[in-house]
Structure formats: C-alpha cells, structure tokens
Amino acid sequence: MTEKLRVAVIGAGRMGADHINRLHHRISGAEVAAVVDIDLARAEAAIKGIPGAVALASAEEALDNGDVNAVLIATPGFLHEDILFKALARDIPILCEKPLTPDAASALTVVQAEAKLGRKRIQVGFMRRFDAEYAALRGIITEGGLGELLVLHHQHRNPDTPAGFTNEMLINDSVVHEFDAIRFFTGEEIASVQVRLGKPTRNAPEGQHDPQHVLIETESGVLADVEIYVNARFGYEVATQASFEDGIVNIGNDGGPYVRTQGRWGGRITPGFEERFGTAYDVEVQAWVDAALRGEIGGPSAWDGYATSACCEAGVEAQKTGAKTAVVLAAKPDLYN
Amino acid sequence: MTEKLRVAVIGAGRMGADHINRLHHRISGAEVAAVVDIDLARAEAAIKGIPGAVALASAEEALDNGDVNAVLIATPGFLHEDILFKALARDIPILCEKPLTPDAASALTVVQAEAKLGRKRIQVGFMRRFDAEYAALRGIITEGGLGELLVLHHQHRNPDTPAGFTNEMLINDSVVHEFDAIRFFTGEEIASVQVRLGKPTRNAPEGQHDPQHVLIETESGVLADVEIYVNARFGYEVATQASFEDGIVNIGNDGGPYVRTQGRWGGRITPGFEERFGTAYDVEVQAWVDAALRGEIGGPSAWDGYATSACCEAGVEAQKTGAKTAVVLAAKPDLYN
Amino acid sequence: MTEKLRVAVIGAGRMGADHINRLHHRISGAEVAAVVDIDLARAEAAIKGIPGAVALASAEEALDNGDVNAVLIATPGFLHEDILFKALARDIPILCEKPLTPDAASALTVVQAEAKLGRKRIQVGFMRRFDAEYAALRGIITEGGLGELLVLHHQHRNPDTPAGFTNEMLINDSVVHEFDAIRFFTGEEIASVQVRLGKPTRNAPEGQHDPQHVLIETESGVLADVEIYVNARFGYEVATQASFEDGIVNIGNDGGPYVRTQGRWGGRITPGFEERFGTAYDVEVQAWVDAALRGEIGGPSAWDGYATSACCEAGVEAQKTGAKTAVVLAAKPDLYN
Amino acid sequence: MTEKLRVAVIGAGRMGADHINRLHHRISGAEVAAVVDIDLARAEAAIKGIPGAVALASAEEALDNGDVNAVLIATPGFLHEDILFKALARDIPILCEKPLTPDAASALTVVQAEAKLGRKRIQVGFMRRFDAEYAALRGIITEGGLGELLVLHHQHRNPDTPAGFTNEMLINDSVVHEFDAIRFFTGEEIASVQVRLGKPTRNAPEGQHDPQHVLIETESGVLADVEIYVNARFGYEVATQASFEDGIVNIGNDGGPYVRTQGRWGGRITPGFEERFGTAYDVEVQAWVDAALRGEIGGPSAWDGYATSACCEAGVEAQKTGAKTAVVLAAKPDLYN
C-alpha cells in the first residue's frame, strides 16, 4: 500500500488528543490526515500545526475522504459500533480504543462482521500487551522454563477516581485491563468471575465500594485474583505476581521481571549500551530534529565536545604518570554561555 | 524552515546504520535523504527500503545535494573535523557522534569556527543527557532540595571489549562519557584528573590495564571518581551515586533515582498511567502503523474486545450477587485462531 | 521467684532439640533442668554437655521434679492437652508449641482451665509475632498513620513438604500461622474462611492439592487471602502485603517494611550503629564467651589491633599532606599466623 | 575451665553499660562478676539487679578478685595498655574494645607481650567481622567463585557527630573500621593510604572537614576507597561494593549480599523457616523467660491457641466444600481481654 498511513482520528478528547500528538510527534510512517469531533472547534484546535490535516464534524466525512487510509477511534465507547461498521466497509486498518463496544452482544456483531470480511482490520487498544514487562512475563510463560503457570495475583491501584466513577466502571474501565492481561498471559479464555466486597476506604466517593477483590478462573483452572483499589492515594500501581511450578515472577514495579527460582531472587542484567541507552538515543535524535525544525540547536554543544577532549588528554597523561593532572581550557566563546 | 528534516547520514557503520534505522522507523519529522560511506556498497545496503534516499561515496556530494538540509556524522572520529567545517559552511543542523574531533586542539578550532558563525549548529552525541535517570539526577541537583552536591561515585562497566581496545581508548571512548556526565551534573568544568592502576583482571586483553580508578575534581572542589571496568563479564552497568549535604541519590540501576534523605530510602511512585504506560502506547501505535503499512493487523483483536466485554458483564453481575459467575462466549470464528 | 528458670523440655524431637540448644547456648536467665522423651535414649542424647540436666521418660516425673520451675512442651500436638493440665496444676510458666491442642473443643477446655486458675500461665508458640517485620507491621497498623487497614495478601511458600503432608496439614500446620498473623495484625477474630483449589503443581505428592488460595474475612470485614504453596521449589517465603487507606506496606522480603504512601516508595533508614550492628555485638561477645569456655581465643587479634593503629597513623598523616602515605608494620609474630 | 565465664567489665560508660546489659540479658554461659569504674557510683548503678556482681573502683581489684576469670575492657583507649598487661599477666580471656591502644608503638608492645606469653588471650572489638553480611562477603572472596577480588568501594556515613569530633577521630574512630574490614575481606595488610579533601558540607562542625575520600591499597594491589561522611544527615550507612573478576557484590543495604554475575542480579533466597525465623524463636523464648522471671506470661495466649484451632477446623471444612465457612467461637473469658 502507500508508504505512509494517513490516519483519521475520531474523537479529539483526552485520549484522542494524546493519540494525535503521538502520531504527529513520535510515530514514524503515519500522519494525521483528519481529526473528527462533534465539537468542530475542538477538532480544529487539535490539528493546529499539523500540515495537511483537516478538521471534520463527522466520521462519515472522514471515511469518505480519499486522503484517509486508516482510522483511529477514540470516541466514547457507545459511538464505536457505528464507526467500526463504516470503517470495516471501507476495509481500512482500524485502531479502536477499548472497549470495542459497551456490551458483549454488540461486540459480537462486530466480530461477526469482521469474520465475514475474512481478514483482520481491527486492533483493540489494550496497550499493556505492548509494555516491555508484560511482554517479558508472557515470554517466560510461553518459554516454559519455570514450568506451568498456576496462580496470578494482580494489583490495580489508582490514587483516585474522576467524579461519577461508578462500581460498574470499576469493572468495565479498570478490571477490563486485567481481564485482557490474564487472557494474554495464559492464552486462555476466562471461565468465571467472583467479587468480594470488604472494608471500604473512607476515600471512596459516595456509592462506590473500594477496594474490591475480584476472583478469576481460566479454562484450565489457573486461579487469578485482582485487588482493584482506585482510591489508593499513594500513587499508581499495576503489578502482577505469577506463581509457577518452579518459580515466582513479579512485574510492574520497574526494573523488569523479578524472578525467584532455584534458591535465587533477582533479574536479568542489561547486556549492553543499546539496551540501556536505546531510548536515550531515540530521545536524543528526536530532540535534535525537533529543535532543528524550529531552526535551533540544543543538547551537548561543540564546547562540550572540546572540553571533554581536554579532559581525555589529561586523563591519558594521568594514566601514564599516576599524578594529578590539571585540565586547561581555552577561553569560552560567548555563544556557549 | 521546511516541515521535514532531510538528513544525510555520513558513515554507515554500526552507529551509522543504527541512526539510519532510528531516523526511518522511529523518528518523526525527519527522513533519511542520503547515506554516505567510502564503501558505496555499504551505503547502498543501508538505504534499502527507504524511499527517496540516495547512496553516496563522499560527504561533499551529500552536502552539495540540494535535497539535504541536515547532517548526522557517524564516521570514525579522525574524519569529523573536515566534514564539520563543510557542514558549518552550509549552515545546516549537525548531529555529530562523539568525539567532536580526536584531540582538544582540533576541537577548539571547530568551536571557534562555530563561534565565528555566531549561531549554534552542532550537537554532540552525548546521549546520556537524554536518559530519564540522568535528567532526573540533574534536576535534583538544580532544584537544590538536598543541599549542595559534594561527591559523585561513578561505575562504568562493560562485559568485555572489542579487540584492540587500548588503555587510551578506555579514557577516550569510555570515561569520556563520565567526563561529560560530571560536567552535566555539576554544571562545572573539570579541574583535574588522576588515575589509579590496581590489581588487573585476568580477563583483560594483552596491554590493557583493567579496571582503573579515575579521580576527578571540578572547579568548585566536587570530588568524583570513576571505576572504569571494561571486562567485568557480569553485564553492562553505568551507575552513579551522588552524596549531597542532605541525602544520597543513586541512578543507573533501574526504577528511577533512588534517594536516601531524612531517615527514608526509596523513590518516587509513578503518579499515573500516562507515566507508567506512555511508552507502551507509543509502541502500540507504532506496531499498528508498521503492520498496516504491510497490509496486516496484529495486536489485540476484535475477538479480544468481545471476550473482555463478556468478562465485564459477568464481573458486574458478580459484583452484585457475590456469587461465582460463569463467563459464556459465542463460538470463536476461525479468523481469530 | 528464683533468679533462673529451670526448664523441663517435653519432647526431644526436631523442635524440642532446637529449643534445648537455644535454652543452653543462646538464652540468658534460663537453664535446661530436664528433658523428657518416651525414647529415653533420645532424651539422654539431648542433655549431653548440659551440666545439671536430667533425662526422663515421662512428663509426670519432670513436673514432680522440685528442680523444675518451668516447662516447654514440644511433643506432637495430640499429647499437649494432658501435659498442659498437669503443668497448670503446678501453676508454672508454660511455653507450648502450636497447636495448643489438635482441635478447638479440647483447646477450649484448656482455655477454661487457665481462666479458672485466674492467671495466665500458657504462652503458645506463634513465633512470628516476635519477628521484627511482623512487629513493625503491627506497629504501623496500631499507630494508624496510614489510615484503616483494608486488605491483607499473604504468601506462604515452602520449597517442598515432608512425606505424608496431607491437605489437612496444609491448613493445620501451615495456614494456622497466617490465621494467627491475621488475628495479630488486625486485633480481630476471623469470621469466615473459604478455599479455592486451582491448577495443581506437578511437584505435589499424591493426594495433596497444591497450591491453594485461602480467602479470609475478619469481624470488621477486612479481606485477607493466603496463597499457600508448599512445593514451590524456589525457596522459602512468608510475606504479607497490606493495603491501607493511605498506603501499601510489604513485609517478608528482608530490609524491613517497604512502604508506599504519598507518592513515595521505600523504607526507614537504620538510624545508627546500635540498630545496624546490635546483633553483631551479641554474636561477637557470644563467640568470645564460647571460645573462652573452650580455653581459646578467636576473632580479631592483638595483631589486628596493632596493624589498624598503624593504618590510622598513616591516615592522619595522609590527611594532612594529601600524599600517598606508606603503612609500615613490624615483623608479625608466629602466634598470629 | 569453669562452666561459666565470670566477667569483669572495666569501664561503665556507654559501651561498657551496653556490654554489661548484653552479658546479663542476652549472652549465655557468661555472667557479670564485677564492674569497674573510676566513678564508683556509676559502677554501682551498673550492677543493679545483677545478683553476685560487685562494683569496684580499680581494674587491679577486679583482676585480683578470685571470682573473676575473664575481662572485658571498655574504658577510653588511653587506659587500655596498662589493663591489658595486667590481664595478660593473669592469663585470662580478654575482650578489648577498639582501639587496642591509641598508637601503633604501644599496640606493638602488647602484641609482643602476648606473643611472649605464647597463646592468644586478646580479642579486639572489631564487631563488623561478626555481621552476617560481612561474613558472607568474606565467604564469597575465599570461595573464589567470582574470581579475584579487584576493587572495594566503601561508604561509611553517620547522620552527625558528637561535639569535639576532630579530623583525627574521623580516621581513628571511624575509618579504623574500614581499615580492619579491608584487611578482613582481603586477608592482606594495607600498603598505603591517601586522603582527598573536597567540597565540605555546611553541616560539619567548625574545624572538621567532612566528607573525605580515603584511598587505600593492599599488599597485592587491591584498590579500595572509603567515602567517610559523618554529617550525612539522612541516616546511618555502612556499605561495601566489591568488584571481582567475574561479578560485583554489594553488602550493607539489608537483604544479604546482592550479587551481579553471569547476566543476573540478585541474591540468595532464604532456604527455610529456621533461617527466616531463627531469630524470632530466640526472641520468643527469651521473652517468655524474662516474663516468667517476673512472674508473668506474655505473648500468644491459650485463647490464641483455641481461636486458631477453630479457624483450622473451618478451613479444613472449607477445603472440602469450597463454600465460605463461618468460624464460631465460644465466649472469651475475661482473663484474655
């Protein structure tokens, strides 16, 4: 197909604006072609500074736009179904924020429509599958080096919740991620769910029971549980501890999977600078590009290059003599002050 | 200026190829316009699959190329000076891998030329400044919440070194990063350097003394030391421990800065999902774009969207009844197997 | 009362022998007066090297022995009840290994007998209450600085189990510690228990279902759960994560309580050398005493004292001069080689 | 010799009082026979509640006392020499707090006197050698599994210093521990010492330069350095990082040695409950003994034993049925409230 994805982003709210910024500033091979919002002013604001992007008031217009060859759906869930059917009709790649649709029945009709089409066109926005630690735990499970996976303990904790966050949303908007994560980790469907309501925090809003303890079983009998605690105050945490036949693995507390097996606890050491500083290189080059596009230069300067050369010369000398060796620098041009 | 950076990458070796891949697949707002290598075949291999890029055998050709408006220099250091002068003459943004030039005298001539030009055009490739933990430590120092910075302990450890890695390279190619890091952290120039040679490892190649202990002082008397140990076998580590008047900070062992102050040890908790999963969102969308450009769809499918909806419905029901609630799914279309 | 406890240890099996060794070598203010075992040879072996201790074949004899003023019960549980009643009749301090008795009904008769006596004479062997981290978590709960305790997640993992370790023993011998810990932490009685049986490990012996997930609720509705996993292979772990209204606390993974609250994760820093090295001082002095009783001296020698003095003199000199200062030592007497 | 050590403690100041308490309450096989202090009132206060102990005003009296068969010296250092000679003359076991004597010359005369005696009678109070982590690092070095030890980085940090703590004391009272630790770890004598004075903290008292960076080399060329920082405010820390040919080991931050080798970071997992709860057992039994000697009983009560039995019965039932099972308790006798 074309060498660039020309994306119509439907919905310019929080997630939509975030994706627009991502597509324009960080994603290679794709461009924002159109932004749709019922509030046209919000769509227009969202395309400011994006050459070649148009603001539209309806998904139809965007999908009829010949310049658009992909769609990212970031509207409230109840609007997804209609847009999904129209986009499937155009047979273009779709990235749809979760939930696919608000209920299983309507979601099934989308599934059946895509199945009828005969090729996958829809990716759902369960981004955790793209998190390095999630991928690493999935890898440990599939490689099988620790034996069978037996138990999964999940913690999903938010500092607080937006106004009007109901008990239902606690499942539909929060635990939904763990439902997908458990399916992703085990490669199995979930067979049953149970919820325990215990002592509630004083910090929960009226009508919301927080925390809750969700008990889950998969087809093969893997036991999982989720402490969903959305007014935990201390910060944000999404973590999992997995019990295997031959070890225990923790993810979600930084530093990559933390493994206990064969009498050892710990993790894998970064093998080299590419792994350690790969992101820094990306950030460095992107920073240089962004500044250059503004006609500027930031970051380490030629003076920094010179000064470190002088240090190296002193260092090599010191290496030979063992003596403390002074580093002498020329006068610093004003340009670098 | 133009809305895209059209970059000539000079040098298609390891770092050059890495930057070409970065510019083409991960960096937004820039494109590879030309790749230069004395070995033209290597340049041609490097531009495979990059529409609009040309392979050239000399930096001159690239800099004379009207389609080029930026240059990334990734040749061996002894070739930098000549290319830098030519690029400065064209007054275009330059990203130059370290070292700026192989010695302080020649580096100074580059500095003076850019100063004469009167505007910064050169960024040097000290990528550590773009690492999140380095930036965080720099932030802690400038914010001053822990009082004055007094001592910096650096460890720079590699599993092993390429053949022919000499004692001089140990300073010029490895410790050079700490020289810049110490200057970056303190905002001061380095005043003196001393090197201690102790018991060497059996794993060091002939003629290389490893490890070495480098002692550094800054203008204001901050004491720094670097254990440079390039055949450490265990893995790769670049870490710093900073002693302040009112606390101690460690970076370089994952999990962000680790601070000890006021009787507490620990770090900052991720405040929200944007911080925790921001990268996952980038990876997710890039994966969707890359697959779409290949005419494919990967990642969570519509079936995943449907199955999690069914879990949510069971969860909300279970929340009300407290009973174990079965999750019932429709037959799975072959498309999703 | 007397200035020394003269203890009769009933049962010279694994726990009994361990307590005998403890009383004789590490506990101050108590001595082993008698060891009772139906296997008299085992009792006699147990008192070897303990001056003034006698080996006996029945608890009666021990309790009739005027030299005995305290009793430690370490027999199998089904023998406890009879010994407890006899010891209560003598009104002496009793340390009884858990379980108090094998079932609630008989345990209640012991409770009623002691209540009738009108003063406490029995301490039960729930040793976790004396673990520094357990005490610290209890302290955090009672101090209330993190608000109300809401949820307790326990992991109880053993590498493997002795032959004949049944499903019942998994509750009676293992989870019993968590039952007491939950009561200790919350200061409440337990209101209900539920057990989930999921996917079992291949490493569990015939007839034992491992792991199991035990769900517990306290009087006030605190939710607790225990992953009891006794063939976990990787090692031994007894850990708890407590969710409060204003923070999360982990214990059981060394380093003291790990707290997350107010956007920070971490722990308390050892305030001084007494806390850091208090145990080392105890071990040091005990080692000196034990060696002296054997007519020997171990540990740091006078030579060590001399050599470090020489280092200090060089150090103070170096402090003044800033120069590298040699440490010169006299010839080392053979005694110290 | 006798079956109990009857110890004369010389000096009833801070360390002396601490050792008296230790010998009386925590050390088995030794008793305080005499306490000596030039301030007799302080000696008398120190023996309060210690049956059979006498307070004396001179070391001579204590050493002439036939009831005394061992001596612990805890006076200021300048008084050690005279007492050491008298105690050597009596040929009894001596535990002498560091320093052995205030200077190398006098320490050497003590060494020579003991060597003349022909048997070791003196142990010097370098208690770090008895710390579990120090012993573990020494073990790793001697076992040789990580190859040769090459570099040792020490941090010695105190929150603050007592009034009148001079630059000399910073070496003689603080760094002296690292001098011994480096000798203990390497099994070598120290060959040279150098001190770097950098940027001082505002928190140091007049006339004291803090922090200091002490550079040390051993006979075989092992490089060591110590950051001695005695007004570090944040807390107390004594830590070491050792670089080996095949790995890196950290001690001093709890949790036992932290090892990096072969691409892994981490530590050893507690193998069983004896290792995890051994100290808790000691504390438990000592607590029972101490309470019993006061005529009391503390700790888990018979009621705790009963209540946990009831939980176990409910648990075993729940295990069979899978249902939530209530725990029913009898009325609680007042004795347990």
Instruction: Give the largest interface.
Output: A-B, 146 and 145 residues
Rg estimate of chain A, integer Å: 26 Å
- Looking at the overall shape, the CATH architecture of the largest domain in chain A is 2-Layer Sandwich
Q: How is the CATH topology of the largest domain in chain A named?
A: Dihydrodipicolinate Reductase, domain 2
The CATH class label of the largest domain in chain A is: Alpha Beta
Give the count of structural domains of chain A: 2
Strand order of the largest sheet of chain A: 8-9-10-7-11-12-13-14
In CATH, what is the homologous superfamily of the largest domain in chain A?
Dihydrodipicolinate Reductase, domain 2
Helical proportion of chain A? 25-40%
Query: What order do the SSEs of chain A take from the amino end to the carboxyl end, as H and E?
Result: EHEHEHEHEHEHEHEEEEEEEHHE
Largest sheet of chain A: 8 strands, mixed
Q: What is the residue-mean pLDDT of chain A, rounded to a whole number? A: 88
Percent range for β-strand residues of chain A: 15-25%
Tag the structure with descriptive keywords.
homotetramer; 337 residues; alpha/beta; eight-stranded mixed β-sheet; 15 strands; 37% helix; 24% strand
Structure description:
The structure is a homotetramer of 337-residue chains. Chain A is α/β, with parallel strands linked by helices and 337 residues long. Chain A has nine helices and 15 strands. Chain A has an eight-stranded mixed beta sheet with strand order 8-9-10-7-11-12-13-14, with helices on one face. Chain A starts with a strand and ends in an 11-residue tail after the last strand. Chains A and B meet through helix 1, strand 5, helix 5, strand 6 and helix 7 of A and helix 1, helix 5, strand 6, helix 7 and strand 8 of B. Strand 8 (190-197) of chain A pairs antiparallel with strand 15 (325-326) of chain B.
